[in-house]
C-alpha cells in the first residue's frame, strides 16, 4: 500500500506550492532578511516532504515491480531543481547580508553554515551529488567532501 503523500496528485500539489515559494523568493527583492529567511525555511521543509514523497513512490513501484523509470527521472529533475535553487538562495542570502552589520561577519558565516549543513544533509539523503560537490567546493573544505562522499 502506497502512503497518501506518495500519490501523484499530492506530489503535484506540493510541487506547485514549492514552485510558488521559489518564485516568491526570486521575485521579492523588497522583502527584509527575516521574511526571506522564513520563506526559505518553508521551501526547504516543503522540499524535504516532496523528495520523501518521490522516494516513497519510487520504492513502492519497485516493490510492486511496476515501471518506474519515468517517475525516477521526474524525481531526479525536481530534486536537482529544488536543491540547486535552495543553494542558490543561500549564496544570494550570504552575498546580500555578508557585510550588512559591522563586526557580524562571524555570525553571518555561522548562520550560513547552519543553513548549508541542513541543505547538505538533504542532498546527501537524496543522492544529489552536484549540490553536495558545489557546497563542499564553495566552502573550500575537502575533508567535508570526503566525509560526505564516503558516507553516501
UniProtKB/TrEMBL annotation:
Q: Name one GO molecular function term.
A: structural constituent of nuclear pore
Kindly give the InterPro entries that the UniProt entry links to this protein.
Nup133-like
Coiled-coil stretches, from where to where? Answer: none
Gene Ontology annotations of biological process type: poly(A)+ mRNA export from nucleus; protein import into nucleus; transcription-dependent tethering of RNA polymerase II gene DNA at nuclear periphery
Primary location recorded for the protein, binned into one broad class:
nucleus
Where located? Nucleus
Q: Which UniProt keywords apply?
A: Nucleus, Transport
Taxonomically, the superkingdom here is Eukaryota
Q: What is this protein called?
A: Nup133/Nup155-like nucleoporin
Q: Which GO terms describe its cellular component?
A: nuclear pore outer ring
Q: Which organism is it from?
A: Trifolium medium
